């Protein structure tokens, strides 16, 4: 497989199957997927378009991807967890 001139690596991070991946979009929407829900690809595979993986709108694009441990997010007010603030 050959790469196109506009193909580039934007972010690289190490995670495990038990972590969550947060996808922040240009419209302020956050999508959360477990790492095991993201298909694994080889060195020569083309991968899956993020639109197909998350179901985002055509005029929306991903601005930031953050891997976190699943227990770092507070699911409700009763549970305490870390907060993430983006500006």
UniProtKB/TrEMBL annotation:
GO BP: any one term: DNA topological change
Molecular function per GO: ATP binding; DNA binding; DNA topoisomerase type II (double strand cut, ATP-hydrolyzing) activity
InterPro entries: GyrA/parC_rep, Gyrase/topoIV_suA_C, Type_II_DNA_Topoisomerases
Cellular component, GO, one term: DNA topoisomerase type II (double strand cut, ATP-hydrolyzing) complex
The protein, known as: DNA gyrase subunit A
Organism name: marine sediment metagenome
């Amino acid at each position: 497989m050959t790469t196109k001139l506009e193909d580039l690596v934007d972010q690289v991070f190490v995670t495990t199957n038990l972590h969550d991946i947060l996808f922040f979009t240009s419209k302020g929407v956050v999508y959360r997927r477990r790492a095991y829900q993201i298909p694994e690809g080889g060195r020569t595979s083309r991968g899956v378009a993020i639109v197909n993986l998350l179901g985002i709108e055509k005029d929306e694009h991903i601005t930031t991807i953050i891997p976190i441990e699943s227990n770092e997010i507070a699911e409700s007010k009763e549970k305490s967890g870390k907060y993430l603030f983006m500006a």
